[in-house]
């Protein structure tokens, strides 16, 4: 079935059919004035048009190129019953505007995006290499090998909240009043080995005022059989005993902390 639509610019009327409207979503070009409009919105009854272009070159109009059809936004298409419309007099042929063809993504963009993704994964692996090696022992060897290429290392984790002082005390020496012994038990509660922490010991008086403070590195408190490079093993506990010469400080209390430098 066909119907009649009217150009909103020059008022020339044209015969259209449902197939044309479906193909171009209603967007057409006027063969008289070259205006582009939505034929669906300009449907009219079959009445003679006061502005008919009888000398219109039909062949030239059909070959008129469509410039930038994507600039026109098609409106929602309604379905019409054209059976009640008679054939319009002095009708001209419309040129339907084909829908815009989507451009293909160039392969160079895909390669660039793939390279960016690889770079992102490498950077993420580098910054989280310690955590990955601790939680995924199966990939630690591969990480160590990769680090050699980037001149980096994979140190043991330093999660101070997973370390604890299970017990500690100060022990005096009756034979040497100025010498005291610090006893402490350190435990690693993490499911992986960790770097040995530093110890900060503060000696206090009866008013809990600091008399002296000293920091002990792992090399100073570890026993000879304990390897610092291996770290404090998972769910493992070590005992520490340090002999200190307090001279004439005569401390009555102490504070002991663990920390990573």
Question: How does the SSE layout of this entry go?
Answer:
Blueprint: E1 2-6, E2 13-17, H1 18-24, E3 27-29, E4 36-38, E5 43-44, H2 58-62, E6 92-93, E7 95-96, H3 107-127, H4 129-135, H5 140-149, E8 163-173, E9 176-188, E10 198-204, E11 210-216, H6 218-221, E12 236-245, E13 253-259
Parallel strand pairs: 2-6
Antiparallel strand pairs: 1-2, 1-5, 3-4, 3-7, 8-9, 9-12, 10-11, 10-13
Question: Care to describe what's here?
Answer:
The protein is α+β, with helices and mostly antiparallel strands and 261 residues long. It has 3 domains: 2-96, no CATH class; 107-149, no CATH class; 160-259, Immunoglobulin-like (Sandwich), CATH 2.60.40. The protein contains 6 helices and 13 strands. The strands form 4 sheets. A 4-stranded mixed sheet has the order 5-1-2-6. The model is unreliable at 48-54 and 56-92 (pLDDT under 50).
Radius of gyration: 44 Å
Could you say how many structural domains there are in total?
Answer: 3
Strand portion, in percent? 25-35%
- Mean pLDDT score: 75
Distance between the ends: 86 Å
Assigned CATH class of the largest domain: Mainly Beta
Q: What overall geometry do the principal axes of the alpha carbons give?
A: rod-shaped
Give the topology string: H per helix, E per strand: EEHEEEHEEHHHEEEEHEE
- Which strand order does the major sheet show? 5-1-2-6
Number of helices: 6
Oligomer state of the chains in this structure: single chain
Largest sheet: 4 strands, mixed
Structural class comes to alpha+beta
How many strand units?
13
The second-level CATH architecture of the largest domain is Sandwich
Helix content: 10-25%
User: What name does the CATH topology of the largest domain carry?
Assistant: Immunoglobulin-like
> Are there runs of 5+ residues with pLDDT below 50, and where?
48-54, 56-92
């Amino acid at each position: 079935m066909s119907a009649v639509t009217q150009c909103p610019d020059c008022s020339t009327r044209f015969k259209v059919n449902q197939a044309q409207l479906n193909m171009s979503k209603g967007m057409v070009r006027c063969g008289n004035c070259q205006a582009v409009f939505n034929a669906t919105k300009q449907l009219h009854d079959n009445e003679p048009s006061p502005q008919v272009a009888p000398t219109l070159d039909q062949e030239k109009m059909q070959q008129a190129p469509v410039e930038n059809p994507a600039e026109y936004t098609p409106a929602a298409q309604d379905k019409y019953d054209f059976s009640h419309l008679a054939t319009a007099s002095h009708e001209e042929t419309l040129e339907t505007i084909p829908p815009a063809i989507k451009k293909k993504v160039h392969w160079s963009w895909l390669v660039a995006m793939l390279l960016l993704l690889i770079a992102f994964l490498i950077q993420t692996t580098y910054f989280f290499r310690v955590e990955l090696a601790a939680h995924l022992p199966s990939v630690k060897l591969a990480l160590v090998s990769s680090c050699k290429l980037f001149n980096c290392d994979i140190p043991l984790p330093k999660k101070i909240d997973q370390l604890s002082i299970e017990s500690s005390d100060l022990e005096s020496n009756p034979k040497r009043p100025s010498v005291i012994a610090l006893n402490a038990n350190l435990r690693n509660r993490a499911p992986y080995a960790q770097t040995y922490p530093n110890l900060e010991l503060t000696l206090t008086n009866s008013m809990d005022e600091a008399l002296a403070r000293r920091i002990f590195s792992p090399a100073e408190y570890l026993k000879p059989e304990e390897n610092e490079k291996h770290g404090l093993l998972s769910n493992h506990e070590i005992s520490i005993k340090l002999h200190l010469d307090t001279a004439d400080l005569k401390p009555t209390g102490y504070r002991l902390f663990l920390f990573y430098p």
